Amino acid sequence: MDDRPIGVFDSGLGGLTVVRQLMRQLPCEDIIYFGDTGRVPYGTRSPETIEKYAAQDCRFLIGKGVKFIIAACGTVSSVAAHVLSCLPVPAVGVVEPAALAAVKASGSKRIGVAGTSATINSGSFKAAIEKLEPGAKVFQQACPLFVPLVENGWIDTDDEITRLTAERYLQPMKEEGIDTLLLGCTHYPLLAPVIGGILGPNVALIDSGQATASYCAEYLKSRDMLAPGGKKGELKFYVSDRPGDFSKVASMFLGQEIDDSVCKVDIEQITGSIC
């Protein structure tokens, strides 16, 4: 058994969808979440900047004594996955678990990928899917407006701006006849009702956060690293800017209210080697 917490980080709020899945699958685990709200979004940054941010985020969580790190960010997982490979604790991004879930779900092997600009430009999800299923046809679409829509709470199916934006992004993949859409950013599951309404009931939506939480659960279980049972896991939240705003919106992602004990961190001061 291992009662150290699980560490999760993201550029902002989207990674809370992973936390929500971890809470469901591993209710006894303590979780430390860092949201880099002062530097969001990562998806429009250069690869060098994304790598720097990812390293600082990982250093922060390692300093909190975590036993496992999840990069709950499609951009980091796609552009700076090598940062995760040299950590002193096991770590995973969202690419491989989500790609595996998409391949398993697809009957026709015509799979769409929606993600940030950096994620789509990296081609990471496409490469992972094609490695698992060489005959797959993968259709990618950058959806840069999805993150600000979600973080501003514009997620209702009857919101005309959100619906029209999603239709504009998704129409090309719909015309290609995809039967599965991989949501390659952890913000996007909040838009699943909107996306599902556009693509129809015959297109499976793959929640990268859910797939990654399942991977974490299996990893910890197989190595006897689960926390002792009989207790409810504790959540701790850290952000790099505006803790009050985080508290207000976080409940939407988690599906439950959180208290105001969100701590602000000067992430730029986190330095030193992680390898």
Average predicted local confidence, pLDDT: 93
* Helix count, DSSP H or I runs of 4 or more residues: 12
Order of helices and strands: EHEHEHHEHEHHEHHEHEHEHE
- Number of separate structural domains: 2
Task: For the record, give the distance between the C-alpha atoms at the N and C termini, rounded to a whole number.
Answer: 25 Å
Q: Structural class of the secondary structure composition? A: alpha/beta
- Strand order across the largest sheet: 4-3-1-2-9-10
Radius of gyration: 18 Å
Keywords:
Rossmann fold; 16% strand; four-stranded parallel sheet; alpha/beta
Structural summary, described in words:
- This protein has helices at residues 16-25, 47-63, 74-79, 81-85, 95-105, 117-122, 124-132, 146-151, 160-175, 192-199, 208-222, 243-254; strands spanning 6-10, 31-35, 68-71, 91-92, 110-115, 137-142, 180-183, 204-207, 235-239, 262-264.
- With 275 residues, the protein is of the alpha/beta class.
- Helix 1 links the parallel strand 1 and strand 2.
- The two termini are 25 Å apart.
